[in-house]
User: What shape does this take?
Amino acid sequence: MVDKAEIFDKLKSIVGEENASMDEAVLRVYSYDVSPYKGRPDFVVRPGTPEEIAEIVKLANQYKIPVIPRGAGSGAAGGAVPVNGGIVIELTRLNRILEIDTANLQVVVEPGVVHATLNKELAKLGYFFPVDPGSTDMATIGGLISNGGSGMRSVKYGVTRDYVMQLEIVLPSGEIVTVGSKAPKSASGYDLPRLFVGAEGTLGIITKARLKILPMPQAKALVLAAFDDLEKAGNAVVNTFAAGIVPSGLEILDRSALEAVKTYRPNLDIPIVEALLLFEVDGTPAGIREEAARIEEVCKNTGAVKVDIATSKERFDELWAARAVVGAATTALNPDCTRVYEAEDITVPITNVPKILLKIREIGKKYGMNIVTFGHIGSGNLHPALVINVLDDDEWDKLWKVSEEIQTAALEMGGTTTGEHGIGIARARFMEAEHGKAMELMRVIKKALDPNNIMNPGKMAL
Amino acid sequence: MVDKAEIFDKLKSIVGEENASMDEAVLRVYSYDVSPYKGRPDFVVRPGTPEEIAEIVKLANQYKIPVIPRGAGSGAAGGAVPVNGGIVIELTRLNRILEIDTANLQVVVEPGVVHATLNKELAKLGYFFPVDPGSTDMATIGGLISNGGSGMRSVKYGVTRDYVMQLEIVLPSGEIVTVGSKAPKSASGYDLPRLFVGAEGTLGIITKARLKILPMPQAKALVLAAFDDLEKAGNAVVNTFAAGIVPSGLEILDRSALEAVKTYRPNLDIPIVEALLLFEVDGTPAGIREEAARIEEVCKNTGAVKVDIATSKERFDELWAARAVVGAATTALNPDCTRVYEAEDITVPITNVPKILLKIREIGKKYGMNIVTFGHIGSGNLHPALVINVLDDDEWDKLWKVSEEIQTAALEMGGTTTGEHGIGIARARFMEAEHGKAMELMRVIKKALDPNNIMNPGKMAL
Assistant: This one.
């Protein structure tokens, strides 16, 4: 048996008294994230430097204690939940933007920098980091990278991994290593940076990230298209791409989402239809006018009952607000219920979006759950909001069944259980079904890099 | 000692008599690629299915014989050269486009499909695979993926790894495994597809690839800007991005390249200046006019001596032709010399491009070599063309010195020895200097996946 007091003393000597805790109340705070899962840590530390993190990991490796890296704790899959106890390493003190090099289109940040903070600083200079998670005001860059996050703009701008140039990593051995390159492109050696993107802290801890940035587009416009039929909305998406247009965002609110938003914000001028598509285009002023007009034409030809183009900032912001509040609005239709993050991140090939939306309605009807669905149709990524009375055990039974059926349907339609939130604990049970023999490859890599299995164990079915 | 005749019999029984050879002339053909390196294989096989490849790899693993996957042999780094003998597996019989799914923006191809063939098929439907290597008419998709290739459009469209959704791989054990997803985005598990991108066949053999495609842009324009100063050309690149424009291509021809092109094609209407920038923009007709006008303004403000906008197809094609022939033109200035592919793929942060161009001139002067330099300035990727009289041993000495100095300079400027051609044998000696401790991580991965080191051994300094 390991002497906990002895380890705690060592941890305190590494990070300082004020940055280490075994206090019951503190441990409880770090037992959760946004998911319904929990697990009690033995220690919580808040290191201030990569070197301190390296010392902590060395200690953990020596005693074979789990290490759980944690950013803002805004993850929805239980990735930062210490299911096997151990040391939670909170990374929010490493929150400096170390370098902004606009001429070379890159920045260097510490993992604890909040996503919105980075984009606020970049906006002052006319640049942006294109990945745009809904949790921008909370999520840290380290968490975003570790969970392979993305957001609404992935249709045109891709996902986090496309922007990671170089990472500094504390390996499970406690060694600090830099992977990747400052060069805008590189074909030199294995693609190590991307091995750590989406690895959820199971292979090492990110202590620095060099990210690609882009100049802000000169102008944006929004096209709203209302459809009385889901299939037609799906076709409009396909036809828009076929017309040579790649929108910067392409969102869908189905009837359930529109009703929720309308209940939550009655003054918002949005139609209640089977499906509302929001197309965001960006580029030059004349370019976006042309693209918006073309999208309008495509949508009308595909059976839209109403199309609306917003170029004024006011209307643009009002319409995006409808999309932004939908998460919060999901419980508006069910005031005594709480949203539980389960099956909330399925992704299917674009042409299967109408089919899975109907399937979700069918599952909701079967179990008597009013499921609100919205998401990034342009990348096939949907966020069904499962809501239950969390004080009722029977409701939990229902939740697990609904979750199972929705995620199984996504896999059957050639999709994945997670487009941008990660696997963590929440989706681990689907890994074998999704990846088959490739799971063995993941396990071989995990074992080679972390032979003592100290790095965030119990996650991703590894 | 292994009985070669016995192995040859087994190989023949797997792929058929007509697809296996130990003939000296055949072995000689497979001893080379475009690089100056060579190595004699023991066997050459041309399998027709992934299952045959799996059988060959199992046999190789049993006898611990090297396996060297080969596409068109158009690689410039010696990646397909069998330095330790063994079985060359030529993949060009696997040359089918298995699926074109425009609605879901994806295709499935076998590794032996030639890049240009894929894009010809897609063009008929109004789509394209945006990665555009200069070797499009030769290079196979499998080679492109394995070498982490890219091309002129990477500024806007990224590199090969950004388009790889799913791969079927024959692992070193001979097992066939599928990694990745059909979903447009996924945060599920380790990013296995990208582990095989750029791995140069050292971790497995790609037998199928699902790739993302995009709709063809509606229109394109080209802006030519001539500068009497390299520094100003570099600034024009930075200022163009700063103006919110991300060109689809951004190429540079320096004085040496312009002179070579002019000697090779005297009728081409191009100026002889210190640096010529070619900006390609794509999008909607009005959008590209606006962008081209803005680039013209930026270039003039940054000191361009002449700016020319081409929107007509004729002028557009003529100007791109100047860029396309520069490789062939490199020996025009030195008719008794041959181009040797060494130090031909350096990449540095964009702002260091003028500096390294000057450095290359200085090195050329020092060694009395007329080095022609051109490349993708928008991604910092330059292709210096080293030319020598290959029949003269002293000239080879000179070549190695020039290569060493250019590549060392690239590393010192925060760059890499290869932006898109790969490491192979050619750049293996720089791996430690470039990656430091990260090399150990690459070796751990290699050893975990290929414990008998049969997959393309002797490459990438692994």
Q: What stands out?
A: The mean pLDDT of chain A is 95. Chain A touches chain B through 99 residues (CB under 8 Å). The first strand of chain A starts at residue 20 and ends at 21.
